[in-house]
Amino acid sequence: MSEYFPEVPHIEYEGPDSDSELAFDYYDPDRQVGDKTMKEHLRFAVSFWHAFTGDGSDPFGAPTMQRPWDDIEDPMEKAEARIEANFELLDKLGVDYFCYHDRDLAPRGDTIEESNENLDEIVPLIKEKIDETGIGVLFGSAELFAEPKYAVGAASSPSADVFAHAGAQVKKALEVTNELGGEGFCLWGGREGYKTLLNTDMGLEQDNVARFLTMVADHADEIGFEGQLMLEPKPKEPMKFQYDHDSATIHAFLQKYDLDDRFTLNIETNHATLADRPFAHELRYARLNDILGSIDANQGDKLVGWDTDEFPFSLRDHTLAMYEILQNGGIAPGGINFDAKVRRESFEPVDLAHGHITGMDTYARALEAAHALKESGELEEFIDERYSSYDEGIGQKIVEGEADLADLEEYTLENDVPHPESGREEKLNALLNRYILEV
């Protein structure tokens, strides 16, 4: 059996004073943070599509990635090599999970039947590697956006034939994920939207997406799939207007179609940026509405208006993300999937290790800072005090639904004009910085 990353050792925690480029400075999997170890809190995963099938191409340039399997001509042999490489890299990183699209695992055939046969051929190897290593599937997904037939959507396509094909593809992908013991299945509606209303029946398209999701949930029940079903928000790109714009948009959609008890959300940092939302905002909305399922950990370049999927290194943003996850009671059965790719100029295999080490260290440091902030109670105490007028008097009546507009008028006539209190934003930014810098 080939070794695909011979220059990458098993990555160990060596601490921030280490001189090694291939070691963790902050991620110590066995370190106790509160009632869990770092490994239990963080539940890291590697995205197969970026790490093993991504080629470094972009709209302006050809592929740049140099990978040990590049010279393998037979598509199935290449797929097998990628599977072997996946488990090697994850074992060396100490990561317990990976995520995939169906077409990442095995090449698409000329027909759905051939594509399914390719999956059936590769699944035994994956099961063998899972049994051998203990590395499992965080979530699977179906690639319903790359092929020409999905140019204007899958479940939202104006073509019933395309809708049917998408359903057949998801059926197989869900069954494969179930067979591999996946803890979730994610549907990213990359092209579920429209370019112009001039040729779009928005009502029918949204109704059809709901019908599609109902079929998916029903089939999950039929095959005994016990993992969570997830949708992933993204506002635009590749479509101009996507129906899964952000957490609140999807939540309203799920409520409208009585699907809010069947699906949670897989929320991505860079997608939140594209929606003009802070990542923490998206997480908090999902947390407060009990639909936070998992996260795709990356970050975007705010000077570039597309989904750059960089490995996370912004400590502030990801500390706030971990704060929401801790407030949620954790992320399981979801996890922290590095839906991130090395830069097009970082084309050597070892760069994959560097990228994941950076991301894992960032989240480890963020976990420590977020945990310390949560344990101190300082932020929640400030918020509680700021809204304390709702704990008694007219505020309590408002909260308990015992006040009407006449009551508010009577109260206002009897009391002085209220004076606003400072929100102390600068003070709270300093507070957050203190916890980030002190851990």
UniProtKB/TrEMBL annotation:
InterPro entries xrefs: Xyl_isomerase-like_sf, Xylose_isom_bac, Xylose_isomerase
Catalytic reaction annotation: alpha-D-xylose = alpha-D-xylulofuranose
Keyword Membrane included in the entry's annotation: no
UniProt xrefs under Gene3D superfamilies: Divalent-metal-dependent TIM barrel enzymes
EC number(s) from the headed UniProt entry: 5.3.1.5
Annotated keywords: Carbohydrate metabolism, Isomerase, Metal-binding, Xylose metabolism
Origin: domain of life: Archaea
Oxidoreductase is among the record's keywords: no
GO molecular function, a single term: metal ion binding
GO biological process terms held by the UniProt record: D-xylose metabolic process
Membership in a protein family: Belongs to the xylose isomerase family.
NCBIfam families linked to this entry: PRK05474.1, xylose_isom_A
The protein, known as: xylose isomerase
Organism: Natranaeroarchaeum sulfidigenes
